[in-house]
Design goal:
Layout: E1 3-8, H1 10-13, H2 15-21, E2 23-25, H3 32-41, E3 47-52, E4 59-72, E5 96-110, H4 111-115, E6 134-137, H5 139-149
Parallel strand pairs: 1-3
Antiparallel strand pairs: 1-6, 2-5, 3-4, 4-5
Length: 157
C-alpha cells in the first residue's frame, strides 16, 4: 500500500465536503509531478491524509482512501472550466484524477505540530519550497502520524 497527502483549501473543498459527499473525483490538478503520482503510482485502496491549506490553521484533518485508480480528468475537455486545456484530447489526455473516498475526520494536526517532530523532518510536505497539492508519505511517516492521532507518540525536537 502507498500513502499520500492531499491538500485542499477548506473553503474550496474541505473535509466536511468530502464527509458529506462520501467520495469525489480529485479533479483540477495541473502540476505534472502531482499528476504523475496519481497516474503512475496511486492504486485503489491506498490511504491518504486530507490536509487543509491556505487557512488559519493548516494541517491534517482527516483520512481518505483511493476509491478508483487514475482516469482522464474530464475538466480538461470542458471549454467552460477553469481547468480546460486546449492541448488535451480524448485520445491523448494530459491530466488525470483519482476518486478519493472519505474514511474519517481526525483532530487537526497542525503544520506547526508536524514540524515539531524530529521523526517527520524529511516529510515532503515540510520541505522548503514544496507547493505540490499531492505528495507521497512514507510508511514510517504514516505510522508516526497515526500514533499522534492515537495520542501515543510524544517524541519531539
Amino acid at each position: 500500500m502507498n500513502y499520500w497527502l492531499f491538500k485542499s483549501e477548506p473553503t474550496t473543498y474541505g473535509i466536511d465536503h468530502l464527509a458529506r459527499d462520501k467520495s469525489t473525483a480529485w479533479t483540477g490538478v495541473r502540476n505534472y509531478q502531482a499528476r504523475n503520482f496519481m497516474r503512475d503510482e496511486m492504486r485503489k485502496g491506498d490511504r491518504g491524509f486530507f490536509y487543509h491549506s491556505s487557512c488559519e490553521v493548516p494541517g491534517i484533518v482527516g483520512i481518505v482512501e483511493i476509491g478508483r485508480a487514475a482516469y482522464p480528468d474530464e475538466t480538461q475537455f470542458d471549454r467552460k472550466s477553469r481547468q480546460y486545456d486546449a492541448a488535451a484530447t480524448k485520445d491523448n489526455p494530459r491530466w488525470y484524477n483519482v476518486d478519493v473516498r472519505f474514511v474519517k475526520k481526525t483532530r487537526v494536526i497542525s503544520l506547526d505540530e508536524l514540524r515539531s517532530h524530529k521523526a517527520l523532518r524529511n516529510m515532503l510536505l515540510l520541505q522548503r519550497g514544496n507547493r505540490l497539492s499531492i505528495t507521497p508519505v512514507t510508511a514510517a511517516e504514516w505510522n508516526y502520524i497515526e500514533g499522534l492521532l492515537k495520542g501515543g507518540t510524544k517524541e519531539k525536537g
